[in-house]
Description:
The protein is of the alpha+beta class.
Amino acid sequence: MRHSIRRRFLLVSIISVILALIMASLVLIDLFTRNLERRIDVELTGHINNIAGTLRFTADGRIELPDRPVDRRFNEPYGGLYWQVEDDLRNRTLRSASLWDTSLPLPDDDQEAGSIHRYHLAGPEGSDLIVQERKIIFAAPDGKRAIRVAAAVDASVVSKASRTFMLDIVPYMVALAVFLIAASLAQLTYGLRPISSVSEGLDRIRTRKADRLNGSFPRELQPVVDAVNRLLEAQSQLISRARTRAADLAHGLKSPLTVLFNDAETLRERGEVEIADELVHLAGVMKSHVDRELTRSRIAGSAALRSTDADLATSLNIILRTLRRTPRGEKLSWTIDVAPGTTIEMDPSDLQEVLGNILDNAVKWSRSAIRIKAQRQDERPVLMIEDDGPGASPDGLSAIMKRGIRLDLKTPGTGIGLAIVSDIADVYNLSIDIQNIDSGGLRIIIRF
């Protein structure tokens, strides 16, 4: 069940439709019952008014009802409809034939003349009665007199009618439930159809018939389609970058390998030691290239693919612990002004690669001191690294971060370190500004 969206929606639809129809049925039954009770109240009030209108007094002041109500239920013993008239002053009671040998136990409470009072009282044979009572002031021969007129109906009429109504609406509710569930299934089938279009588009991409999801998609699916297309574009860029790096590696190894082959042959023929030294040097060059390419392969394909954000102070401390232990790093004066807690939206390993290459270059060229300062400009973190080395020529400043460019061939290196920094800068949209310091040295400003 958990693997099918269609089944999940169908289950939710069935449960929600059933619950909704049950609640609707209860509301309809309640409305029907209330409406029926209102009709009964109107009927009872009408009976009271009719009885009150026909009451008469004899010459000696006794109350009588010459015209009895014509409803046949008043004449049938325990017929379910009853009336009763009480003259408390003369202690005389008139009642319908339907009450037979019983009477309505009207409560002995104070009532306002003319108002209708409604009760639930016990009736004949343990029945429950809905009773209306009205106190009416009559002009009797011996003066004004309060007469109590009551009419009652068996409450089972309401419950029976409610049950009948409930049984009558059940088939309609079942038919409505089937219709609503079928409509939900049709709606679900139509609503999920665009997902099939996405699946077909992905199949076209898998079979190399397309390179992205094309076509018109619903507004709700468009963010997913855009995310897939961005992922495909990032994948394409990663493949292109991998090919470029492979080409760089092949180019970097081609010449040394050729020389190694020739020198190995010469060494084999002549036994000269100098060539062995040269082979060692070339092997070191090869290793440097391989190490750099492996480093590039670890760079995140895009900023969105980073494993987590990096803490600038933490990453910097990791690099400095290593550089300060090098022979040149031990001789330098380090000035660090980086507050902890500065978060950079970069993969920590990529940030360390940038800092490591730049600081490694600064250690090589610095004479006595390196200064590192972090600050915020326009809400963006900015890192400034300065050394007091010889700086670079204007042409060298523009070429220093290009692949394989070395400004001084006498200093050990391959010219690839800062090129790696440039590659990472492209991935994370970093702004790197390199400038000479007037007092001597080089300043590198990284705007994250």
